[in-house]
UniProtKB/TrEMBL annotation:
The protein's name in its UniProt record: GIY-YIG nuclease family protein
Organism taxonomic ancestry: Bacteria, Bacillati, Actinomycetota, Actinomycetes, Propionibacteriales
Residue numbers spanned by region Disordered: 1-22
Domain GIY-YIG: start-end pairs: 50-132
Domain of life: Bacteria
């Protein structure tokens, strides 16, 4: 006969709230992400409510790592990347969400309504994304970021006002930001990405390009760590030529169609 005393292991307990289940660093990240997306812009509303827009992610060094566009809502798209992890970039192991430390948003408020033409609006969206992409390439110490699909080549435009937010707490930065942890995590990301290429076989040239760029980023991070351990100046990122390894990152030679806003077919 089962015991029903207070100390019984069979005593029912209250089901915890789902939000209480993630680890503390994950909860902190999601809290700061929600705060960023809820940022109020005078006369416009919250940035998450802009249906059309462009976004960029940055790592722990402030290095740009990914640029994207959306016309389904900035909040929806960014959440799919960083919390639901239901996008091609994440599912294919191209983007490691644990490496994202900052977020920048360019909301394009009422773009389709203002232009009165969805084709013209899409052209403006493409141009805005490509301009932000060029800015990220310019700001990158490697002259390359982790986009599998390079945005459609467009005439650069003046970028609208952007909003940039930190997404990690001080405690998380101390833990995840340690170089040995970042090296191990990046090596694991490369291994997973290589496994995707091996298992699927037929993958895009862009995915293979990202694999090279990630390897360069890992090599540089490891070299900086070695230099620190040996007490000598950190090596320059110019020691490895990304362009020499992958060619131009300003346009795509292949045309696989535009599915940047599609959920990966794995889900």
């Amino acid at each position: 006969m089962a015991s029903t005393g207070r100390a019984s292991a069979n005593r029912p307990t209250a089901k915890p709230a789902k939000k209480s289940l993630p680890a503390q660093d994950v909860r902190d990240f999601r809290t700061m992400l929600t705060h960023a997306l809820d940022h109020e812009v005078d006369g416009r509303g919250r940035v998450r409510e802009s249906q059309w827009g462009v976004y960029a992610f940055y790592d722990y060094d402030g290095e740009p790592i990914y640029v994207g566009q959306t016309k389904e809502g900035l909040g929806v798209r960014v959440n799919r990347h960083l919390t639901n992890q239901r996008t091609d970039a994440v599912a294919m192991r191209i983007l490691d969400t644990f490496e994202v430390a900052e977020l920048e948003l360019w909301p394009l408020w009422n773009l389709a309504d203002d232009l009165g033409d969805r084709v013209a609006a899409q052209t403006r969206l493409d141009a805005t994304e490509y301009t932000a992409y060029l800015a990220a390439i310019e700001a990158s110490r490697f002259g390359a970021i982790l986009n599998e699909k390079i945005p459609p080549v467009s005439t650069p435009v003046e970028l609208p006002e952007s909003y940039r937010f930190g997404l990690i707490s001080d405690a998380t930065r101390v833990e995840r930001g340690h170089p040995d942890i970042r090296i191990a995590r990046r090596a694991e990301t490369i291994s997973r990405l290589a496994a995707v290429a091996r298992e699927r076989g037929e993958v895009s040239e862009g995915l293979r390009r990202v694999l090279v760029i990630q390897a360069v980023r890992l090599a540089h991070l490891s070299a900086v760590r070695l230099a620190h351990a040996e007490g000598r100046p950190r090596p320059s990122a110019d020691a490895i030529s990304v362009e020499g390894l992958v060619g131009s990152v300003l346009w795509d030679d292949e045309d696989d169609g535009d599915d940047r806003d599609d959920v990966d077919t794995l889900f």
